[in-house]
Amino acid sequence: MAGFHMEHFGCRAARADGEAVSSRLRAAGLCESEPAQAEVVVVNTCSVTAEADRAARAFIRRAHRLNPEARILVTGCYAQRAPQELAGIPGVAAVVGNSHKALAPAIALGLARGDTPPDSSLVTVSTLLTNHADGAAPIWADDRFAHSFLEDAQLLPGEQTRPNLKIQEGCGNRCTFCVIPTTRGSSRSLPQASILRQIDGFVAAGGKELVLSGINLGRWGADLAPRQTLAGLVRQILEQTSLPRLRLSSIEPMDWTGELIALMAEFGGSRLARHAHLPLQSGSDTVLRRMHRRYRPWHYTDKVNALLRAAGPHLTLGADVMAGFPGESDAEFAETLAFLRTLPLGYLHLFPFSPRPGTRGWELHAASPVPAALADERMAALRALAAEKTQAYRAQFIGQELEAITLHTPEALAAQGCTSALTENFLPVELPGRHAANQLLRVHVTGLNAVGTLAGCAAALNTALA
């Protein structure tokens, strides 16, 4: 039996793409294996930063050294942004951009079966955009995105206890630092009927928690006819399915509508996870304007306060913050630090600015770069503030009981006789004893360990949510 290896880079939505490809390959009879033993290695790339590009190239070269006979298929955002760059790397047998990722499973299957180049029958639904005349790998990528929406095979509670159901693709916001409109195209939505069918199948298979994800999740439904809304979809899921717990991934601040926030008040803490991730990027009004973000700091505060009123103090809030955007002055960065201190955040995702070719940010960086050493200093200050806020937020739950779902426990922790879990409001917790993954428990929090993870014990099975 031929084997494949899937290597993931990037966000939840990218992970969902990779899991969908893996599902198709398993259904076709391939088995999962390590890179050294696989006939085909699929590299699902990210290109949000230069470091993401570098990590993907390093993995491709390492996989080729480990297994020179393996055929490497590169897909994802980097494959869309710079396919020729990847096609020339030794070991790469095919490059499939996001515009054609619906074809990736069939192309990978052809490679695993020894088709070199991929069997011409695979090209009947598309055009093979480059040939092998120069020795480089064939490329499937264009700017039409006609074969871009890779609807998952039925999601099951397996390797991921809490799988991502990607319901939206692409983005049209045109933030100056972001390459996503180029690498993923405009916003496109999975139809509601397909989503409800996926959720029913997941529940029937014993699934307990599902995460709705997308590149710009809050814009789900805007492209459908008739136009629909994410809030309307969430209500349909909660009223028409028996999914025990639904979690929403990152949603832009201005897409938290009054209707969506009201659902947090109605269902938060029972079947809708009290967890909201609102990308911020900067707490400075002037920097947000240069970023072409569609809100100001006071808008962000209004949304945070509305969510807290709806869901209560157990709501865990997270944010993305960027340091070193072109032209960011000491005063502007100080504004960001001061603004973050006012927010009741449970965690921060932090990023240094990385200029991406083809974006307005690339031009701004050329004209007014923030020195790398200064950006590093600002990242260090943000990390210190993030650690302080996370510690303080989590400590307030000591002595309380929280709902949690058990996860697949890392081997090192399992060897200590413990189990990993995640609370309903998105806090990591370690439990004494061995518990199977995908179990809903009520957890009594007893403290924090050395790395800030909650320590607790399973108080009782949560029969209400089982």
List the keywords.
single chain; 466 residues; alpha/beta; Rossmann fold; Transcription Regulator spoIIAA; 4 domains; six-stranded parallel sheet; five-stranded mixed β-barrel; 18 strands; 21% strand; globular; disordered C terminus
Domain tally: 4
Task: Please identify the top-level CATH class of the largest domain.
Answer: Alpha Beta
Helix content: 25-40%
Strand content: 15-25%
Question: In the CATH hierarchy, what is the architecture of the largest domain at level 2?
Answer: 3-Layer(aba) Sandwich
Spans of 5+ residues with little confidence (pLDDT < 50)? 119-128, 461-466
Biggest sheet record:
6 strands, parallel
What is the total tally of β strands? 18
H/I helix tally:
15
Assembly form of the protein: single chain
| Average pLDDT | 92
Which strands sit side by side, in order, in the main sheet? 2-1-3-4-5-6
By secondary-structure content and strand pairing, the structural class works out as alpha/beta
CATH topology of the largest domain: Rossmann fold
CATH superfamily of the largest domain: Response regulator
Overall shape: globular
Report, as a whole number of angstroms, the end-to-end distance. 38 Å
General description of the model:
The chain has 466 residues and is of the alpha/beta class. It has 4 domains: 3-140, 3-Layer(aba) Sandwich (Rossmann fold); 154-273, Transcription Regulator spoIIAA, CATH 3.30.750.210; 302-395, Transcription Regulator spoIIAA (2-Layer Sandwich), CATH 3.30.750.200; 401-461, Nucleic acid-binding proteins (OB fold (Dihydrolipoamide Acetyltransferase, E2P), Beta Barrel), CATH 2.40.50.140. 35% of the residues lie in helices and 21% in strands. It is built from 15 helices and 18 strands. Helix 9 runs parallel beside helix 11. Residues 119-128 and 461-466 have low confidence and may be disordered.
